[in-house]
């Protein structure tokens, strides 16, 4: 296939989901992120208000919106966030003087490490990036960032997913654990 | 969509290959052969495949008509032929059923092995072993009640027939519902033009695909 032919795309967009499916996706997203926010406000965060990081919004889309995706499985969720966090913090420590370079290295490194460990989870890219550009509060956590908020937050989202996605008859979670 | 799924589920049980053709291992191998990351689990893919396969079978069976799959060169017998001659004809051609056709070509009924078995006393289970079992338990064998009979006496009637335009999916459903193994195909005047057996249906997806 030629270059321009490839640009046109060859496949069809898959069909949409039912209103029931949308409701349960909505409910999971609301409960997952809501619980994280409440716990953050309740003092579970190491530092004020860094419990809820942007990448969890993306994880919520996968966990509650596409729970059958391999990208949304526990292995990918926890592994993806934690490995990416490690890469992100390391890149900040090594290349923090040049944020553009540290950011690029963090995200690309996270993708590579997630592939290597079969833990691909797109929000991991955000977790790695936030380790670089997330500001002083994040930087001050050092590698602890990978455990709290990253590991802890992902685990709470996982618990909510295990509960909510297994209530309706037409849904189940996870497809696999590791 | 629910309607469509129901329709796909309608396919008679003769098509287990949608369930068994492809194992999880095969999907894993296939996914390894395709470079790049595929965002689907092997088991989800299998499920998609099973549904798609059923839709494909249904589509093919809807498109194929009786005329496309029937055997045209049909052995048929007249209504007054003796049971002995009917049995001989079936034996020499190695077939398990013949239509009974009058002089005008109209189908009056169908004679199958089962009709013979029943007349030979195997009324509970119309099969050959039931006849054997009866032969072994009772004195002598039991073809005598057949001696005086003619084709019209032993045939199952009225005949179940299908038209030349009947889709294969409906013929398959007829086989299942009426518990028969072959059905004569008649033209619009009711004259026999062919016969479709279960084997003709089974061959179908592999031919027509």
Please, could you describe this protein's structure?
The complex is a heterodimer of chains A (178) and B (209). Chain A has 178 residues and is mostly helical. Chain A has one domain. Chain A is 66% helix and 0% strand. Chain A has eight helices and no strands. The relative contact order of chain A is 0.18. By secondary structure, chain B is mostly helical. Chain B folds into two domains: 62 residues, no CATH class; 142 residues, CBS-domain (Roll), CATH 3.10.580.10. A three-stranded mixed β-sheet of chain B has the order 3-4-5. In chain B, helix 1 crosses helix 4, helix 3 packs across helix 4 and helix 4 crosses helix 12. The longest helix of chain B is centred in the N-terminal third of the chain and has 22 residues. Chain B starts with a helix and ends with a helix. Chains A and B meet through loops of A and loops of B.
Q: What's the structural blueprint in terms of helices and strands?
A:
The complex is a heterodimer of chains A (178) and B (209).
Chain A: H1 3-8, H2 19-44, H3 55-65, H4 74-95, H5 99-116, H6 123-133, H7 136-141, H8 147-164
Chain B: H1 2-9, H2 17-20, H3 24-33, H4 42-63, H5 66-69, H6 83-93, E1 97-101, E2 107-112, H7 113-119, H8 128-137, H9 144-147, H10 151-154, E3 162-163, H11 168-178, E4 182-186, E5 192-197, H12 198-208
Parallel strand pairs in B: 3-4
Antiparallel strand pairs in B: 1-2, 4-5
Helix pairs in contact in B: 1-4, 3-4, 4-12
């Amino acid at each position: 296939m030629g270059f321009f032919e490839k640009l046109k795309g060859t496949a069809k967009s898959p069909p949409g989901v039912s209103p029931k499916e949308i409701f349960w996706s909505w409910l999971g997203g609301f409960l997952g992120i809501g619980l994280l926010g409440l716990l953050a406000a309740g003092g579970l965060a190491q530092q004020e208000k860094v419990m809820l990081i942007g990448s969890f919004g993306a994880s919520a889309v996968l966990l509650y919106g596409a729970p059958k995706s391999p990208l949304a499985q526990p292995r990918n969720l926890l592994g993806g966030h934690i490995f990416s966090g490690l890469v992100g913090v390391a890149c900040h420590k090594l290349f923090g003087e040049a944020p553009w370079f540290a950011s690029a290295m963090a995200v690309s490194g996270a993708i590579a490490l997630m592939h290597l460990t079969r833990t691909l989870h797109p929000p991991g890219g955000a977790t790695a990036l936030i380790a670089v550009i997330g500001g002083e509060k994040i930087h001050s956590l050092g590698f602890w960032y990978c455990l709290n908020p990253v590991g802890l937050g992902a685990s709470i989202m996982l618990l909510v997913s295990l509960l909510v996605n297994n209530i309706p008859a037409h849904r189940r979670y996870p497809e696999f654990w590791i | 969509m629910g309607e469509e799924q129901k329709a796909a589920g309608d396919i008679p049980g003769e098509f287990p290959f949608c369930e068994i053709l492809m194992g999880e291992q095969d999907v894993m191998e296939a996914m390894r052969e395709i470079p790049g990351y595929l965002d689907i689990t092997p088991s989800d893919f299998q499920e998609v495949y099973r549904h798609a396969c059923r839709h494909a079978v249904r589509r093919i069976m809807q498109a194929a008509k009786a005329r496309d799959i029937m055997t045209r060169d049909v052995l048929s017998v007249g209504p007054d032929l003796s049971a002995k001659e009917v049995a001989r004809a079936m034996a020499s051609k190695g077939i398990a059923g013949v239509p009974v056709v009058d002089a005008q070509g109209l189908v009056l009924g169908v004679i199958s092995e089962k009709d013979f078995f029943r007349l030979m006393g195997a009324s509970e289970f119309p099969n050959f072993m039931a006849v054997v079992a009866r032969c072994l338990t009772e004195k002598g064998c039991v073809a005598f009640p057949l001696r005086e009979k003619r084709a019209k006496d032993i045939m199952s009637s009225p005949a179940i027939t299908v038209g030349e335009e009947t889709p294969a999916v409906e013929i398959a459903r007829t086989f299942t519902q009426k518990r028969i193994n072959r059905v004569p195909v008649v033209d619009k005047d009711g004259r026999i033009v062919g016969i479709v057996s279960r084997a003709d249906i089974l061959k179908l997806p592999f031919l027509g695909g």
